[in-house]
């Protein structure tokens, strides 16, 4: 999985912070930068001025794959067209994201000049097949939209269905996550207020690239997204109640995942949990232990003989359902 972040050159108030981000993020393994120069992000900065500022930022971004959101109106301002993207290429961009307003023929023309990122919500299957047949496949990628307005982002069902169309055709695809500073630019509504680690972890099950949509994420959030990228096994974030040495050591192991049970997902390991079972009230998200097994319940139930050690939230439950082997990321 590749990871990236967003920069908005026309947002002049945070220009210096964005340049610092470009310099810093590479230390955490970030390799992509999405740039938005349209008026949707910074109404007071003309596209032409935002483009000039983008050139300054691109001077710091030589090691990154950088791509810019375009539509016919933006191209007109930049004295460009689908047949001539030379001004964008000379500025230092390596790709363009065709947001809306382009025909399949125009997308093929653009792909002859630089990488073209498709908008999965603007391309039909027939158009996609035409593009993959006529364009250089190495120059075709896709990145989902982000949706700043509350409740406006797409459902996980639509996301999975659309993403699969591109994956079946071997097209590298990306999606956006928000950050807690803004909680705006997310592809999936269920991830709008999610922890960046959880959002990246969830998307890693579907896409090749995860991009932080909101600008100037804190270093902590860069580190959490990078942790997902670097991990070779799925980590489930669990809030732990019992903080004794036995419990914390038990959670450090690797666990196989069994999804056969009616009311729980069972994670099992070879290590024995050396504490007595006790009776507890079972609730949705409860993380409990019996012997070598961790039982994570998916429903509010009655009292049963399990040792309660913590809980997980709905996003981590969804990630767990898609996993066959896991470790736990402990939150105290």
Helical segment count: 11
Quaternary assembly: single chain
Which band does the percent of strand residues land in?
15-25%
Please give the order of strands in the largest beta sheet: 1-2-3-4-5-6-7-8
Helical residue percent band: 25-40%
- The CATH homologous superfamily of the largest domain is named Aldolase class I
For the report, how would you describe the main beta sheet?
A: 8 strands, parallel, barrel
The averaged pLDDT comes out at: 96
Instruction: Please give the alpha-carbon distance between the first and last residues.
Output: 28 Å
* Uncertain stretches of 5 or more adjacent residues: none
Q: What's the overall geometry?
A: elongated
State the domain count: 2
SSE string, helices as H and strands as E? EHEHEHHEHEHEHEHEHEHEEEEEEEHE
CATH class descriptor name of the largest domain: Alpha Beta
């Amino acid at each position: 999985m590749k990871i990236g972040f967003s920069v908005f050159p026309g947002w002049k108030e945070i220009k210096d912070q964005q340049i610092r981000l470009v310099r810093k993020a590479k230390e955490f393994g970030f390799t992509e930068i999405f740039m938005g120069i349209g008026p949707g992000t910074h109404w007071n900065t003309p596209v032409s001025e935002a483009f000039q500022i983008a050139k300054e930022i691109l001077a710091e971004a030589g090691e990154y794959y950088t791509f810019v959101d375009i539509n016919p109106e933006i191209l007109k301002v930049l004295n460009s067209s689908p047949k001539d993207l030379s001004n964008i290429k000379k500025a230092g961009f390596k790709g363009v994201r065709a947001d809306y307003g382009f025909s399949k023929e125009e997308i093929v023309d653009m792909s002859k000049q630089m990488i073209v990122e498709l908008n999965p919500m603007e391309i039909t299957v027939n158009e996609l097949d035409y593009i993959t047949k006529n364009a250089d496949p190495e120059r075709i990628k896709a990145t989902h939209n982000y949706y700043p307005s509350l409740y406006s982002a797409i459902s996980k069902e639509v996301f999975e269905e659309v993403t699969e169309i591109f994956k079946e055709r071997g097209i590298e695809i990306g999606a956006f996550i928000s950050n807690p500073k803004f909680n705006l630019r997310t592809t999936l509504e269920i991830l709008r207020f999610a922890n960046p680690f959880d959002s990246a972890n969830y998307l890693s099950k579907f896409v090749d690239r995860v991009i932080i949509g909101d600008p100037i994420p804190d270093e902590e959030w860069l580190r959490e997204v990078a942790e997902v990228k670097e991990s070779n096994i799925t980590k489930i974030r669990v809030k732990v109640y019992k903080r004794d040495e036995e419990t914390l050591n038990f959670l450090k192991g690797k666990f196989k995942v069994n999804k056969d049970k009616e009311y729980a997902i069972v994670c099992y390991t070879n290590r024995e949990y050396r504490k007595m079972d006790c009776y507890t009230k079972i609730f949705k998200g409860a993380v409990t232990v019996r012997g070598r097994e961790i039982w994570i319940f998916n429903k509010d139930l009655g009292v049963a003989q399990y040792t309660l050690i913590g809980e997980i939230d709905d996003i981590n439950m969804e990630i767990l359902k898609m996993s066959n082997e896991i470790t736990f990321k402990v939150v105290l």
